[in-house]
């Protein structure tokens, strides 16, 4: 609240001067309002939720003989190579079986299209992701994003084998 203070008349005669008036502005209500608004916005604001990908890590089994084996017809293998290259093949790689290796990319028209087509054919598909030592971290994030986008239920990160590296070299892709 603002108020005007007036000085009392001194009572001396003589020249009359204009009365000096000083103004005093009370800042208390404005500060109260500022803190009230600050408190309101602090309590009603929602903070940024962290954008985190949820990963479920497998439990370490005590007996390796009890591990279930993947059927070759359900397996789909993605090999992440160097220089942003992405290879894939259907089935499992064995000594007597050499699957046809195909080249793709990380775009929506690349591996996403292939994964969606594979999912329509076989909903029980298990994707094996094999990153090469020379592949980069961004490619790993991209392929995990593709797993989430395509709603892939089962996928695993597996170490790349020498047979996979040899398959890439012999394919000429």
UniProtKB/TrEMBL annotation:
Belongs to the ExbD/TolR family. Keywords: Cell membrane, Membrane, Protein transport, Transmembrane, Transmembrane helix, Transport. One of its GO terms (molecular function) is transmembrane transporter activity. Its main location: membrane. GO terms for biological process: protein transport. It is found in: Cell membrane. This is Biopolymer transporter ExbD. It holds the Pfam family ExbD. GO terms for cellular component: plasma membrane. It comes from the Bacteria. Residues 1-21 are annotated as: Disordered. It is a single-pass membrane protein; Single-pass type II membrane protein. Coiled coil: none annotated.
